[in-house]
Structures are given as C-alpha cells and as structure tokens.
Amino acid sequence: MNRRQVWLTPPVFGDPAEERRYRKTHLTAALRIFGSLGYDEGIAGHLSVRDPERPDHFWVNPFGVAFGKVRLDDLILVSPDGDVIDGDRPVNHSGWVLHNAILRARPDVISVVHAHSAHGKAWSALGRLLDPLTQDACVFHRDHALIKFNGLLRTPAQGQEVAEGLGSCKAAILQNHGLLTVGAGIDEAAWWFVAMDRACQVQLMAEAAGEVTRVPEDLADSAGAGPVTDRSRLYGWASFQPMVEAVLEDAPEMLLPRPRKV
Fold it and tell me: What angle is formed at CA 55 by the lines to CA 194 and CA 242, rounded to 5 degrees?
C-alpha cells in the first residue's frame, strides 16, 4: 500500500482510549474550524461524537463556549438522560434533545452536526431541497431531507420528529432553522455540513443571478459521492483532513488544558 492509500484510510483502533482521544481531538478541531468559518452564533449550535465504550453516550461542545475557543478538555460527555457524566460545564438542552434522538434512531451514525450558518439558514427559509446545480452539490442528490420547523427543541418527542424526518439520509434542511448532517465519524459529518452550506450559498447566488441549469438526473446520481456507502464515507472523511491538519498546526493550544483562574 502506498503513502497516498494509507493517508486516505481512516485509522482503526484496538484501544478504546486511543479512539476516544482521536474522536475528541477531531471534534475539537471541527469546532475550531466551524468558528473560523463563522458558523457559531451565540449559544446556538452543537457537534457531537459517540463515546467508543459507551455508544449511547456522546461527547459534545459545552453550552456557552465559542466554537473558536473550545479546547479538548472543555468537551463534555452526556448520558442518554441528558446528564453530564464527564466535564464541568453544562449541556445545551436542545442539543441533547437533538443528538440523543438521532443517535438512538441511527446505529450507523457516530457523529451529528448542527450549526446556524448564515447560508444554511437563508436557504432553509425557502422550504426547498437543494438542486444538483454543481458537481459538488451532487453529493446531496437524493440524500437529504426537508424537515418542517417544529419550534425550539425542548422535548424528546420533538427530537424524535427530527430523527424520523432525517430517515436514512446523511443531511437535512431544518426549515426556518438551519442545516443538520450526520456521519460515521466527526470528520465525515463536519465535511458534509461545510459542503452543504456552500451548496446553499452557491444556489442562492446562482438563482439570484438568473436562470440555472441543473445537472441531469443520471449524471447527478453518479457525479458525487451519492447516498451513504463506504465510498461516500471515505470521500467525506478524506475531504475534511486538510482542514483538520491545518487547524492542528495553527492552533495546537486547543489540545492543551485550559488555564484555570486562581
């Protein structure tokens, strides 16, 4: 196997502690990247990844910490009941409602990503699915859902509605709310979010400029990664690695303990 093939292969772990460290490191990196892209908005938005030993528990960014300032030791471990098992910061209640419901409904999903990006919110207000206008947008063709707005996520029943609306898709447009993506790891789920937000931006720009031309259905089915398969998972993971490597190099302090006030 050559170096390129090795780089394009997600790591496999035999030690749960090593896998946990990897997942938390890449979750922290994803949060930092989202902060740099302007995806955070006050206390809104949450990214999660399952714990490798307790898969019904998930690691998530804590309530009230800016994406761009999150450190690895800020992450909190949340139980299916919404209790913080590891960490000293509170959980976003709406985040628990959403992530817990999807992780319970989708055993194939390791990570759930939701943020209030500007282009995602703008597109969600139109109440439409994305069209395959570009090769990049084709990765969502026939593989994203439109879920009607059901108010602030306060109850498990509301979370279940979102999980049912998502179905087997890798992404959803939460009408009048924003975007949601899932994946077999945080890298994949985070990349689908970045790609989807850009697809929203491009379609908004293209339709504002004039009449658009869709990619033909047969080509749209084959041009992108398509519905969730091993090939599409690998594409999502690999696409995010340059961004992860860059932020790990530029912001190494995110892996160090946060200095405590005395």
Answer: 30
Q: Is the pLDDT of residue 34 over 80?
A: yes
Mean predicted lDDT score pLDDT of the chain? 93
C-alpha to C-alpha distance for 171 and 252, rounded to whole angstroms: 30
Place of tokens 């390791």: 110
d(CA 3, CA 215): 34
What does the pLDDT read at residue 1? 38
Residue 130 corresponds to which tokens in the numbers above?
Answer: 């994305």
Report pLDDT digits (tens) over 110-152: 999 999 999 999 999 999 999 999 999 999 999 999 999 988 9
Which residue, among 63, 181, 195, 201, has the nearest Cα to 121 in the 3D structure?
201
- Please state, in angstroms and as integers, the Cα–Cα distance from residue 165 to each residue in 18, 150, 250, following that order: 34, 11, 38
Which band of pLDDT confidence, cut at 50, 70 and 90, is reported for residue 261?
confident
Give me the pLDDT at residue 2, please.
44
Buried b (16+ CB within 10 A) or exposed e, 6-36: eeeeeeeeeeeeebbebbbbbbbbbbbbbbb
